[in-house]
């Protein structure tokens, strides 16, 4: 190995250690909250989603909550995860959006689990997206009801869907099961250096 290559590798390792799981490009202003947050490639997709919800889907900023925290557990292990976007209408969570690069199908089950843990009731709609495509899932059945970013429900459409589906309560037993599922997908299956997960 040449000295030059060794130096590059040392630099890259140091970069990973100081910046965690994602390459940080600087800072950006969160579109919804106005706070400064790390600028990463993934965060840029999340910001585009937030802008789309407001500019094209009719939601107000105060109906969108980014980085919604949910506690999950599996036996004696616990962690706090962040759901990318939670949409609240009339004081009830009506839709969650989970972002992740790559395949959508592999994230369906974890999104459903999250839709049963962010509130004591079944959230009607769960969206899985990689920023370029999306699957829209009916929370109660787990069925895909549409695909594509453009098919993410607009506010008026979500209101109509909520009126038809309701908010079934999640039992303690089901919540425990969903928590284990989400832990397995998001914590056990994650990189140890992923700083978006807080292991307790």
Provide a compact summary of the structure.
The chain has 200 residues and is α+β, with helices and mostly antiparallel strands.
Mean pLDDT: 87
Query: What is the CATH topology classification name?
Result: tt1808, chain A
Distance between the termini: 40 Å
The biggest beta sheet reads: 7 strands, mixed
> Low-confidence parts, pLDDT < 50 over ≥5 residues?
1-8, 10-20
How many helical stretches? 5
Strand residues, percent: 25-35%
Number of domains: 1
Summarize the helix and strand pattern as letters. HEEHEEEHEEEHHE
Q: Level of helix content?
A: 25-40%
Net shape: globular
Tell me the CATH architecture: Alpha-Beta Complex
The secondary-structure class comes to alpha+beta
Number of strands: 9
Rg on CA atoms, Å: 18 Å
CATH class: Alpha Beta
How would you describe the overall organization of this protein?
- There is one protein chain.
- The protein is an alpha+beta fold.
- It is built from five helices and nine strands.
- The strands form two sheets. Strands 3, 4, 5, 6, 7, 8 and 9 form a seven-stranded mixed beta sheet that branches. Strands 1-2 form a two-stranded antiparallel sheet.
- A hairpin with a 6-residue loop joins strand 1 and strand 2.
- Helix 3 crosses helix 5.
- The longest helix is centred in the first third of the chain and has 17 residues.
- The radius of gyration is 18 Å and the shape is globular.
């Amino acid at each position: 190995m040449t000295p030059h290559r060794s130096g590059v590798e040392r630099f890259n390792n140091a970069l990973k250690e100081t910046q965690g799981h994602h390459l940080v490009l600087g800072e950006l202003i969160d579109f919804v909250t106005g706070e400064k947050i790390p600028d990463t490639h993934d965060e840029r997709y999340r910001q585009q989603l937030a802008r789309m919800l407001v500019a094209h889907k009719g939601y107000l900023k105060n109906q969108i909550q980014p980085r919604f925290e949910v506690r999950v557990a599996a036996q004696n292990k616990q962690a706090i995860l962040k759901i990318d976007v939670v949409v609240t209408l009339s004081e009830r969570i009506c839709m969650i959006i989970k972002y992740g690069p790559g395949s959508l199908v592999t994230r369906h089950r974890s999104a459903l689990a999250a839709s049963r843990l962010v509130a004591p009731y079944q959230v009607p709609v769960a969206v899985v997206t990689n920023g370029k495509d999306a699957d829209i899932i009916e929370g109660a059945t787990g069925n895909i009801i549409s695909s594509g970013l453009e098919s993410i429900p607009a506010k008026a459409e979500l209101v109509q869907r909520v009126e038809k589906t309701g908010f079934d309560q999640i039992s303690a037993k089901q919540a425990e099961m969903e928590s284990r599922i989400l832990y397995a997908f998001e914590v056990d299956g994650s990189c140890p250096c992923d700083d978006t997960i807080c292991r307790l």
